Amino acid sequence: MLDKSFDPAAIEQRLYEGWEGAGAFSANPASPAKPFTIMIPPPNVTGSLHIGHALDNTLQDVLIRWRRMQGRDALWQPGTDHAGIATQMVVERLLAQEGNADRRSLGRENFVKRIWEWKAESGGTITRQLRRLGASLDWPRERFTMDEGLSVAVREVFVRLYREGLLYRDKRLVNWDPKFLTAISDLEVESKEVKGHLWHLRYPVEGQPGRFLVVATTRPETMLGDTAVAVHPDDDRFRDLVGKRVILPLVGRSIPVVADEYSDPEKGSGAVKITPAHDFNDFELGKRHDLPMPSVLDAEGRVFLDEITAAFVAVDGFSDLDFVRGLAGQDRFAARKAIVARLEELELVETIEPHTHAVPHGDRSGVPIEPRLTMQWYVDAKTLAAPAIKAVETGQTVFTPKQWENTFFAWMRDIQPWCVSRQLWWGHQIPAWYAADGEVFVAHTAEEAASLARAKFGREVELTRDEDVLDTWFSSALWPFSTIGWPEKTPELAKYYPGDVLVTGFDIIFFWVARMMMMGIHFMGETPFKTVCIHGLVRDEKGQKMSKSKGNVLDPLELIDAHGADAVRFTLCALAGPGRDIKLAKQRIEGYRAFATKIWNASRFCEMNGIAPRADFDPTTATLPLSRWILDAANTAVAEANASLEAFRFDDYALACYRFTWNTFCDWFLEFAKPVLLGPDGVEKEEVKGAAQHVLGTILRMLHPVMPFLTEELWHRMGYGAEGSLIRTAWPEAVSVADAAEARAELDWVVRLVSEIRTVRSEMNVAPSITVPLLLSGASGESLDRAARWSDAIKRLGRATEIRELAGDPPKGAVQAVVGEATIMLPLGDVIDLPAERARLAKERARIEGDAKKAEAKLSSEVFMSRAPEDIVQENRDRLAAAQVEMARLDAAMARIAG
């Protein structure tokens, strides 16, 4: 006998351990079954499960469980990413807490060893948490982006790309983190609004005493490295200065005035200082005009003069070379203050205005990043991108929703060289060795590099290995094929590449999705996945981004503890509409927790009424309209679930399951079946029980991908199969139902009739204890026959004393509704105060209309629409739409009792 209430905590761990121990999640390369492959976006080894992980992995698990039940050889490849900078941070912080030496004192070898120790101790947190969620990953195949096999793949790719001319060293600007002393990717940079200043500085025009060209800048400390001033070619104010030169204050260096459309006449003074070594736009302009590119800040963001001292020029009244020399080694922000102060003393500051602007910061270090000109390793992304672009253009890889293809194309068609080197200790050390003269030898091993050097120099030479490591995204780009054996030709590689679908967020379409496509096509000859399913972000109930500072973060593990994994999974699935962010409220999870309880209680009801699995039940032999109706409805629900999952419409899948289970099966079928189930034994009762057990089994199978724990427990406890067996049970298929259309028409009519009665009673505030006759006017013979056949159910569910055809005029105070060709009437004049009810409805209608007008006024206001945050605008749109629906409902209610 099932327990009185459903307790997720009592079953989840037991069931998961049972599945995992029995190998229920395992793929089998030797199986003749058609493969279905999903590669998990590998979470950082430092990570803990957040609500975005919960969404992403729930959607993947729904797909993998569904396909597994359909008989596919399903591989969901697990693993974690070594997360270079994040992991190095964690262990450095740990060393500090332990009072141990810092990284540099410890030395590289010992520090890396300590990281591996940390991974062994604490690196499995997120994989344990994924198990709490119910994720059915093939755990024995778990990979790590720095395990030995993946390291071999990384070296092989690096060497091949280098030898193909697609990977090279170059001196270019990078995002430089002065705290971590490394280049970082764009994804690791976040812009923060900073209240600063815009300094208007006077640069003396050479040869024209008393004339100055005023430049506007937010970074006066970089002026030491200026090599030009740019003006717009069509700006009449400066047309005569183009080709002339100005004196760089403090330094005294003569620099040219160049014409370039990069300069915006409407911004600042219209003239912009150009520092190619410290600004990305200036770097490109510098290349266009062949400008020198001296660096004036070092790796730690301190003033560095070595590259400009040779160009110092003493210019009376404008330069101060001793002052500049005294800046050496100063922090960039201290130097900024000193430079502005000295320029003010020289009367070379025109004006200073407050200026709020976006400043890029390292997302982990929290310090402003520096564009820095350094020698790094680059991948020729433009060449590799071309086949990936073609793969999407020709439909070899499809994005869903399709609009995300535009994001992919925008990035890929304007792609820049990919900087793949990082100045860290944790990561894949670059397989490049240098001779004393700087000659580089790229090889798989030190021995191979030494052999190449011998061949080059004709003797043994001492080589030094490149100290840098590869960008974490480099190894992640190989994930779809390196995890299953490449560069070896393994059975897994032959069967599971390419994968079927990648499920991920839009924020890493370029950083990960595109790069996997580039590498996959280049090394495997075909795109790594057929479909890229993009989901939105999980936001709070008001549509705001979750953050600790706002206090609106929802912890999925806490939600699982409170409501169970199934309720959390179902909620995320139900809200995962295509192209939309998810507004997650605890009330929604509580609502779907109630859904789990509903399923449990319905199963208990079945159990108490002798409904149990029957191998001898043949749906094709069902004769009763009720049995045929529910069997046909189950066919429809399964078809809807299949179509939804085929189209990656997770919300529609959840809705189809919910609507059929709660409404059709629980609220209608079981209610209609009660008199039969409580009545005498016989053929009719056995058929209804047979249909009930068949459909309950269908529901458990159909819901299993999204609610695996509840359904698995009920599958076993109700007697459908052994414990832990549902996960490998066949997905439900349609059964043949005799005269399905006839049964559907009859029962759907009864449902509409009872629903209309309930709607009228609810709108009129009729208490459940009050019963009145149900009158039918204009009903066809068929409708009257149906009403007669189902009179007991209609009276019981519609709180009616009798059902009869109207004879003569409608009674006074009869409230009306229409079902098909018939008009139904409920004589309520003697049981409620109709005038008072009209007044109540009118008052409520006026209140709702007032709310609608307020929302409408806001949405019609240009000021509101231009200034209000998007979530507030959407809130008012939702409020207006809800008000319009409610007004229509109230209008219909008042029309029922008009006159």
Any key phrases for this structure?
899 residues, alpha/beta, four-stranded antiparallel sheet, 30 helices, 45% helix, globular
* Strands in their spatial order, largest beta sheet: 6-5-14-16
- Secondary-structure-based class equals alpha/beta
* Unreliable residue runs: none
Strand content: 15-25%
Counting DSSP H or I runs of 4 or more residues, the number of helices is 30
Taking the alpha carbons of the first and last residues, their distance comes to 56 Å
The coarse silhouette is globular
Average pLDDT reading: 94
Q: What's the multimeric state? A: single chain
- Helix percent reads 40-55%
Q: What does the largest sheet look like?
A: 4 strands, antiparallel
Radius of gyration: 36 Å
Strands, total number: 29
Protein architecture, described:
It is a single chain. By secondary structure, the protein is an alpha/beta fold. 45% of the residues lie in helices and 17% in strands. Strands 6-5-14-16 form a four-stranded antiparallel sheet. It has a four-stranded mixed sheet with strand order 10-11-9-12, covered by helices on one side. It has 30 helices and 29 strands. A hairpin with a 7-residue loop joins β7 and β8. The protein starts with 11 loop residues before the first helix and ends with a helix. α18 crosses α19, α21 runs parallel beside α23 and α23 packs antiparallel against α24. The protein is globular.
